[in-house]
Amino acid sequence: MIKHLAVASLLLSASCLDIGPAVAADPGITDTEILIGDVEPLTGPPALLGVAASIGHKIAIAEANAAGGINGRKIKYVLEDDGYVTARTIQGVKKVIDVDKVFAMIGISGSGQSIAVMPVLEKSGIPTVIDVAPVKFLWEPPRKNVFVVGQSYEEGIIHLVNFLADKNPGKKWGLITQDDDYGITVRDGFDSVVKAKKLNVVYSGNYKKGQQDFSSDMLQLKDSGAEVFLAGGIIAENIAMMKELEKLSIKPVTGIFWPGRIEPVLKLMGPAGDGIYAVDYVEPFAGAAGKAFLEKAKPLVSEAEFKGINRYTMTGYAAAKVLIAAIERCGKQPTWACTIAELEKTKNVETGVMAPISFGPGVRFSNQKLQIMQADAATLSFKPVE
Protein backbone atom coordinates (compact mmCIF):
# COMPACT_ATOMS: atom_id res chain seq x y z
CA MET A 1 0.00 0.00 0.00
CA ILE A 2 2.78 2.39 0.93
CA LYS A 3 4.54 1.59 -2.35
CA HIS A 4 1.36 2.39 -4.31
CA LEU A 5 0.94 5.71 -2.45
CA ALA A 6 4.55 6.63 -3.23
CA VAL A 7 4.03 5.95 -6.93
CA ALA A 8 0.81 7.95 -6.89
CA SER A 9 2.60 10.80 -5.16
CA LEU A 10 5.35 10.79 -7.78
CA LEU A 11 2.80 10.79 -10.61
CA LEU A 12 0.95 13.71 -9.01
CA SER A 13 4.21 15.64 -8.63
CA ALA A 14 5.09 14.97 -12.26
CA SER A 15 1.69 16.16 -13.42
CA CYS A 16 2.11 19.36 -11.42
CA LEU A 17 5.46 19.94 -13.09
CA ASP A 18 3.85 19.39 -16.49
CA ILE A 19 1.25 22.11 -15.96
CA GLY A 20 3.70 24.47 -14.22
CA PRO A 21 4.81 26.36 -17.37
CA ALA A 22 1.18 26.96 -18.41
CA VAL A 23 0.33 28.43 -15.01
CA ALA A 24 3.48 30.60 -15.04
CA ALA A 25 3.18 31.47 -18.75
CA ASP A 26 4.62 34.78 -19.95
CA PRO A 27 2.08 37.61 -19.74
CA GLY A 28 0.19 39.22 -22.59
CA ILE A 29 -1.10 36.08 -24.23
CA THR A 30 -4.51 34.39 -24.02
CA ASP A 31 -6.26 31.77 -26.11
CA THR A 32 -7.48 34.50 -28.45
CA GLU A 33 -5.13 37.50 -28.10
CA ILE A 34 -1.52 38.64 -27.97
CA LEU A 35 -0.87 42.10 -26.49
CA ILE A 36 1.89 44.32 -27.90
CA GLY A 37 2.72 47.56 -26.08
CA ASP A 38 4.17 50.89 -27.15
CA VAL A 39 4.88 54.36 -25.71
CA GLU A 40 5.07 57.29 -28.14
CA PRO A 41 4.74 61.09 -28.16
CA LEU A 42 1.14 61.48 -29.33
CA THR A 43 0.83 65.13 -28.26
CA GLY A 44 3.06 68.18 -28.77
CA PRO A 45 5.34 68.87 -31.79
CA PRO A 46 7.10 65.44 -31.65
CA ALA A 47 3.67 63.86 -32.20
CA LEU A 48 4.44 64.12 -35.93
CA LEU A 49 6.95 61.33 -35.27
CA GLY A 50 5.20 59.31 -32.58
CA VAL A 51 1.77 59.22 -34.20
CA ALA A 52 3.30 58.24 -37.54
CA ALA A 53 5.32 55.42 -35.95
CA SER A 54 2.21 54.11 -34.17
CA ILE A 55 0.32 54.16 -37.49
CA GLY A 56 3.06 51.96 -38.95
CA HIS A 57 2.60 49.50 -36.09
CA LYS A 58 -1.16 49.55 -36.64
CA ILE A 59 -0.79 48.85 -40.37
CA ALA A 60 1.39 45.79 -39.73
CA ILE A 61 -0.96 44.58 -36.99
CA ALA A 62 -4.07 45.11 -39.13
CA GLU A 63 -2.39 43.26 -41.97
CA ALA A 64 -1.54 40.34 -39.67
CA ASN A 65 -4.98 40.25 -38.04
CA ALA A 66 -6.69 40.25 -41.45
CA ALA A 67 -4.67 37.13 -42.26
CA GLY A 68 -5.82 35.38 -39.07
CA GLY A 69 -3.47 36.90 -36.50
CA ILE A 70 -0.51 35.08 -35.00
CA ASN A 71 -1.28 31.37 -35.24
CA GLY A 72 -4.96 32.08 -34.64
CA ARG A 73 -4.53 34.79 -31.97
CA LYS A 74 -5.47 38.38 -32.84
CA ILE A 75 -2.97 41.09 -31.93
CA LYS A 76 -4.12 43.84 -29.57
CA TYR A 77 -2.07 47.05 -29.59
CA VAL A 78 -1.70 48.91 -26.27
CA LEU A 79 -0.46 52.48 -26.80
CA GLU A 80 0.49 55.15 -24.25
CA ASP A 81 1.30 58.84 -24.80
CA ASP A 82 4.48 60.21 -23.18
CA GLY A 83 4.30 63.71 -24.69
CA TYR A 84 8.04 63.33 -25.40
CA VAL A 85 8.70 63.71 -21.65
CA THR A 86 11.21 61.19 -20.36
CA ALA A 87 9.57 60.71 -16.95
CA ARG A 88 6.30 59.90 -18.70
CA THR A 89 8.09 57.44 -21.01
CA ILE A 90 9.36 55.49 -18.02
CA GLN A 91 5.93 55.65 -16.39
CA GLY A 92 4.21 54.54 -19.61
CA VAL A 93 6.54 51.59 -20.21
CA LYS A 94 6.10 50.41 -16.61
CA LYS A 95 2.32 50.66 -17.03
CA VAL A 96 2.06 48.61 -20.23
CA ILE A 97 4.44 45.96 -18.82
CA ASP A 98 3.19 45.74 -15.21
CA VAL A 99 -0.48 46.75 -15.50
CA ASP A 100 -1.53 45.94 -19.06
CA LYS A 101 0.88 42.99 -19.01
CA VAL A 102 1.80 43.02 -22.69
CA PHE A 103 3.69 40.17 -24.33
CA ALA A 104 6.17 42.38 -26.24
CA MET A 105 7.19 46.02 -26.71
CA ILE A 106 7.72 47.97 -29.91
CA GLY A 107 8.57 51.55 -30.95
CA ILE A 108 9.43 53.59 -27.85
CA SER A 109 9.50 57.40 -28.22
CA GLY A 110 12.78 59.31 -28.83
CA SER A 111 16.50 58.72 -28.31
CA GLY A 112 16.79 60.17 -24.79
CA GLN A 113 13.57 58.46 -23.76
CA SER A 114 14.72 55.06 -25.06
CA ILE A 115 18.04 55.41 -23.27
CA ALA A 116 16.32 56.35 -20.00
CA VAL A 117 13.89 53.43 -20.14
CA MET A 118 16.50 50.80 -21.01
CA PRO A 119 17.00 49.61 -17.39
CA VAL A 120 13.24 48.95 -17.14
CA LEU A 121 13.21 46.95 -20.37
CA GLU A 122 16.30 44.95 -19.44
CA LYS A 123 15.06 44.15 -15.95
CA SER A 124 11.69 42.98 -17.26
CA GLY A 125 13.23 40.75 -19.95
CA ILE A 126 10.34 41.49 -22.30
CA PRO A 127 11.01 41.08 -26.06
CA THR A 128 11.45 44.60 -27.45
CA VAL A 129 11.96 46.01 -30.95
CA ILE A 130 12.85 49.73 -31.03
CA ASP A 131 12.31 51.58 -34.30
CA VAL A 132 11.92 55.31 -33.59
CA ALA A 133 15.35 56.49 -32.40
CA PRO A 134 18.33 54.28 -33.27
CA VAL A 135 21.21 55.44 -31.07
CA LYS A 136 24.24 53.24 -30.32
CA PHE A 137 23.63 53.08 -26.58
CA LEU A 138 20.59 50.90 -27.31
CA TRP A 139 22.65 48.09 -28.85
CA GLU A 140 26.19 48.67 -27.58
CA PRO A 141 26.65 46.56 -25.58
CA PRO A 142 24.00 44.19 -26.98
CA ARG A 143 21.08 43.57 -24.62
CA LYS A 144 19.54 40.12 -24.61
CA ASN A 145 15.92 41.18 -25.14
CA VAL A 146 16.24 44.51 -27.02
CA PHE A 147 16.54 44.74 -30.82
CA VAL A 148 16.84 47.95 -32.87
CA VAL A 149 15.71 48.46 -36.47
CA GLY A 150 17.36 51.33 -38.33
CA GLN A 151 20.72 52.99 -38.76
CA SER A 152 22.79 54.89 -36.22
CA TYR A 153 22.60 58.66 -36.12
CA GLU A 154 26.40 58.82 -36.41
CA GLU A 155 26.50 56.73 -39.59
CA GLY A 156 23.63 58.73 -41.06
CA ILE A 157 25.40 62.03 -40.48
CA ILE A 158 28.72 60.63 -41.73
CA HIS A 159 27.04 59.45 -44.94
CA LEU A 160 25.32 62.80 -45.49
CA VAL A 161 28.37 64.98 -44.71
CA ASN A 162 30.61 62.82 -46.89
CA PHE A 163 28.16 63.20 -49.78
CA LEU A 164 27.94 66.99 -49.37
CA ALA A 165 31.70 67.34 -48.94
CA ASP A 166 32.40 65.39 -52.14
CA LYS A 167 29.77 67.39 -54.00
CA ASN A 168 31.08 70.75 -52.69
CA PRO A 169 34.88 70.52 -52.43
CA GLY A 170 36.74 73.41 -50.83
CA LYS A 171 33.59 75.10 -49.49
CA LYS A 172 33.15 76.73 -46.07
CA TRP A 173 30.96 74.81 -43.61
CA GLY A 174 28.49 75.72 -40.88
CA LEU A 175 26.81 73.51 -38.26
CA ILE A 176 24.22 73.93 -35.55
CA THR A 177 23.07 71.20 -33.16
CA GLN A 178 20.67 70.71 -30.25
CA ASP A 179 22.16 70.72 -26.73
CA ASP A 180 21.23 67.13 -25.81
CA ASP A 181 22.12 63.50 -26.60
CA TYR A 182 20.71 63.86 -30.10
CA GLY A 183 22.84 66.93 -30.78
CA ILE A 184 25.97 65.31 -29.39
CA THR A 185 25.48 62.35 -31.70
CA VAL A 186 25.00 64.60 -34.74
CA ARG A 187 28.11 66.59 -33.85
CA ASP A 188 30.20 63.44 -33.30
CA GLY A 189 29.32 62.18 -36.79
CA PHE A 190 30.04 65.59 -38.31
CA ASP A 191 33.37 65.98 -36.51
CA SER A 192 34.62 62.61 -37.73
CA VAL A 193 34.19 63.71 -41.37
CA VAL A 194 35.65 67.16 -40.65
CA LYS A 195 38.78 65.46 -39.35
CA ALA A 196 38.99 62.90 -42.17
CA LYS A 197 38.36 65.37 -45.00
CA LYS A 198 39.86 68.46 -43.33
CA LEU A 199 36.70 70.50 -43.87
CA ASN A 200 36.83 74.26 -43.31
CA VAL A 201 34.25 74.87 -40.54
CA VAL A 202 33.61 78.61 -40.14
CA TYR A 203 30.53 78.41 -37.91
CA SER A 204 29.57 75.96 -35.17
CA GLY A 205 26.65 76.62 -32.85
CA ASN A 206 24.32 75.01 -30.31
CA TYR A 207 20.71 75.78 -29.59
CA LYS A 208 18.52 75.06 -26.59
CA LYS A 209 15.93 72.31 -26.89
CA GLY A 210 12.60 73.96 -27.69
CA GLN A 211 14.22 77.13 -29.09
CA GLN A 212 12.02 78.96 -31.59
CA ASP A 213 13.94 82.10 -32.52
CA PHE A 214 16.99 81.44 -34.72
CA SER A 215 17.46 84.97 -36.08
CA SER A 216 20.74 85.53 -34.21
CA ASP A 217 22.10 82.06 -35.03
CA MET A 218 21.38 82.35 -38.74
CA LEU A 219 22.80 85.90 -38.87
CA GLN A 220 26.04 84.51 -37.42
CA LEU A 221 25.95 81.74 -40.02
CA LYS A 222 25.58 84.35 -42.77
CA ASP A 223 28.37 86.53 -41.39
CA SER A 224 30.68 83.51 -41.24
CA GLY A 225 30.40 83.03 -45.00
CA ALA A 226 29.33 79.39 -44.68
CA GLU A 227 28.47 77.87 -48.07
CA VAL A 228 27.41 74.40 -46.87
CA PHE A 229 25.19 74.08 -43.81
CA LEU A 230 24.28 71.05 -41.70
CA ALA A 231 21.02 71.95 -39.95
CA GLY A 232 21.01 69.76 -36.86
CA GLY A 233 17.47 70.48 -35.75
CA ILE A 234 14.58 68.04 -35.66
CA ILE A 235 11.33 69.53 -37.01
CA ALA A 236 10.28 73.00 -35.87
CA GLU A 237 13.91 74.07 -35.47
CA ASN A 238 14.86 73.22 -39.06
CA ILE A 239 11.78 75.01 -40.35
CA ALA A 240 12.65 78.13 -38.33
CA MET A 241 16.28 78.03 -39.53
CA MET A 242 15.36 77.77 -43.21
CA LYS A 243 12.80 80.58 -42.95
CA GLU A 244 15.42 82.81 -41.31
CA LEU A 245 17.93 82.05 -44.07
CA GLU A 246 15.24 82.99 -46.60
CA LYS A 247 14.73 86.33 -44.83
CA LEU A 248 18.49 86.92 -44.95
CA SER A 249 18.46 86.16 -48.71
CA ILE A 250 21.08 83.42 -48.46
CA LYS A 251 20.74 79.83 -49.56
CA PRO A 252 23.69 77.64 -48.57
CA VAL A 253 23.74 74.03 -49.67
CA THR A 254 21.83 72.50 -46.76
CA GLY A 255 21.62 69.00 -45.32
CA ILE A 256 19.08 67.81 -42.76
CA PHE A 257 18.77 64.56 -40.85
CA TRP A 258 15.98 62.01 -41.20
CA PRO A 259 13.92 63.12 -38.15
CA GLY A 260 12.97 66.15 -40.24
CA ARG A 261 12.60 64.32 -43.54
CA ILE A 262 8.83 64.46 -43.50
CA GLU A 263 6.49 66.13 -45.93
CA PRO A 264 4.85 68.56 -43.44
CA VAL A 265 8.31 70.06 -42.86
CA LEU A 266 8.68 70.82 -46.57
CA LYS A 267 5.21 72.34 -46.66
CA LEU A 268 6.03 74.67 -43.76
CA MET A 269 9.45 75.57 -45.17
CA GLY A 270 7.93 76.51 -48.53
CA PRO A 271 10.39 77.59 -51.24
CA ALA A 272 13.15 77.85 -48.60
CA GLY A 273 13.21 74.06 -48.38
CA ASP A 274 13.60 73.42 -52.09
CA GLY A 275 16.76 71.48 -52.90
CA ILE A 276 17.80 70.62 -49.36
CA TYR A 277 19.47 67.22 -48.97
CA ALA A 278 18.54 64.51 -46.51
CA VAL A 279 19.79 61.04 -45.62
CA ASP A 280 17.53 58.11 -44.76
CA TYR A 281 17.24 54.32 -44.68
CA VAL A 282 13.56 54.05 -45.63
CA GLU A 283 12.19 54.47 -49.13
CA PRO A 284 10.81 57.85 -50.24
CA PHE A 285 7.08 57.98 -50.95
CA ALA A 286 7.86 59.39 -54.38
CA GLY A 287 9.41 56.06 -55.44
CA ALA A 288 7.74 52.81 -56.47
CA ALA A 289 8.21 51.15 -53.07
CA GLY A 290 6.78 54.19 -51.27
CA LYS A 291 3.74 54.32 -53.52
CA ALA A 292 3.15 50.58 -53.06
CA PHE A 293 3.27 51.00 -49.28
CA LEU A 294 0.69 53.79 -49.38
CA GLU A 295 -1.63 51.64 -51.48
CA LYS A 296 -1.29 48.81 -48.97
CA ALA A 297 -1.88 51.13 -46.01
CA LYS A 298 -4.96 52.96 -47.29
CA PRO A 299 -7.60 50.28 -46.56
CA LEU A 300 -6.02 49.33 -43.22
CA VAL A 301 -6.20 52.69 -41.40
CA SER A 302 -8.68 55.53 -40.97
CA GLU A 303 -8.67 58.56 -43.27
CA ALA A 304 -7.18 60.70 -40.50
CA GLU A 305 -4.43 58.16 -39.82
CA PHE A 306 -3.63 57.89 -43.52
CA LYS A 307 -3.02 61.64 -43.60
CA GLY A 308 -0.60 61.25 -40.67
CA ILE A 309 1.69 58.82 -42.49
CA ASN A 310 5.34 59.84 -42.89
CA ARG A 311 8.76 58.13 -42.92
CA TYR A 312 8.31 57.01 -39.31
CA THR A 313 5.30 54.99 -40.41
CA MET A 314 7.64 52.92 -42.54
CA THR A 315 10.09 52.31 -39.69
CA GLY A 316 7.22 51.32 -37.42
CA TYR A 317 5.75 49.00 -40.03
CA ALA A 318 9.07 47.25 -40.68
CA ALA A 319 9.80 46.68 -36.98
CA ALA A 320 6.29 45.36 -36.31
CA LYS A 321 6.59 42.95 -39.24
CA VAL A 322 9.84 41.56 -37.83
CA LEU A 323 8.40 41.19 -34.30
CA ILE A 324 5.18 39.55 -35.50
CA ALA A 325 7.12 37.10 -37.70
CA ALA A 326 9.36 36.11 -34.76
CA ILE A 327 6.39 35.45 -32.47
CA GLU A 328 4.67 33.48 -35.22
CA ARG A 329 7.67 31.20 -35.67
CA CYS A 330 7.27 30.15 -32.04
CA GLY A 331 4.07 28.28 -32.91
CA LYS A 332 0.96 27.86 -30.79
CA GLN A 333 2.69 28.47 -27.44
CA PRO A 334 4.98 31.48 -27.89
CA THR A 335 7.18 32.54 -24.99
CA TRP A 336 9.49 35.47 -24.33
CA ALA A 337 12.52 33.19 -24.57
CA CYS A 338 11.42 31.75 -27.91
CA THR A 339 10.51 35.17 -29.33
CA ILE A 340 13.92 36.58 -28.38
CA ALA A 341 15.65 33.56 -29.90
CA GLU A 342 13.63 33.92 -33.11
CA LEU A 343 14.33 37.66 -33.32
CA GLU A 344 18.01 36.80 -33.11
CA LYS A 345 17.55 34.41 -36.06
CA THR A 346 15.98 37.14 -38.23
CA LYS A 347 17.77 36.99 -41.59
CA ASN A 348 17.15 39.16 -44.67
CA VAL A 349 13.49 39.82 -43.88
CA GLU A 350 11.87 41.85 -46.66
CA THR A 351 9.41 44.53 -45.58
CA GLY A 352 9.17 46.53 -48.81
CA VAL A 353 10.01 49.82 -47.12
CA MET A 354 13.75 49.49 -46.48
CA ALA A 355 16.63 47.12 -47.19
CA PRO A 356 16.22 43.56 -45.80
CA ILE A 357 16.44 43.31 -42.00
CA SER A 358 18.80 40.94 -40.21
CA PHE A 359 19.99 40.33 -36.64
CA GLY A 360 22.20 37.51 -35.33
CA PRO A 361 23.92 35.98 -32.31
CA GLY A 362 24.94 38.96 -30.20
CA VAL A 363 23.76 41.33 -32.97
CA ARG A 364 20.85 43.49 -31.87
CA PHE A 365 21.07 46.19 -34.55
CA SER A 366 19.83 45.82 -38.14
CA ASN A 367 22.35 48.31 -39.65
CA GLN A 368 20.15 49.48 -42.54
CA LYS A 369 21.50 50.71 -45.88
CA LEU A 370 21.45 54.50 -46.35
CA GLN A 371 20.54 56.70 -49.31
CA ILE A 372 20.66 60.43 -50.07
CA MET A 373 17.51 62.29 -51.13
CA GLN A 374 16.77 65.83 -52.26
CA ALA A 375 13.68 67.90 -51.57
CA ASP A 376 11.31 69.05 -54.30
CA ALA A 377 9.21 71.86 -52.81
CA ALA A 378 6.80 71.87 -55.76
CA THR A 379 5.68 68.29 -55.11
CA LEU A 380 6.40 68.25 -51.35
CA SER A 381 8.51 65.15 -51.79
CA PHE A 382 12.03 63.79 -51.45
CA LYS A 383 13.62 62.02 -54.38
CA PRO A 384 16.70 59.78 -54.29
CA VAL A 385 19.86 61.23 -55.82
CA GLU A 386 22.26 58.41 -54.90
Automatic annotation (TrEMBL):
<dbReference type="InterPro" id="IPR028081">
    <property type="entry name" value="Leu-bd"/>
</dbReference>
<feature type="signal peptide">
    <location>
        <begin position="1"/>
        <end position="24"/>
    </location>
</feature>
<dbReference type="InterPro" id="IPR028082">
    <property type="entry name" value="Peripla_BP_I"/>
</dbReference>
<feature type="domain" description="Leucine-binding protein">
    <location>
        <begin position="34"/>
        <end position="376"/>
    </location>
</feature>
<keyword id="KW-0732">Signal</keyword>
<dbReference type="Pfam" id="PF13458">
    <property type="entry name" value="Peripla_BP_6"/>
</dbReference>
<comment type="similarity">
    <text>Belongs to the leucine-binding protein family.</text>
</comment>
<protein>
    <submittedName>
        <fullName>Amino acid/amide ABC transporter substrate-binding protein (HAAT family)</fullName>
    </submittedName>
</protein>
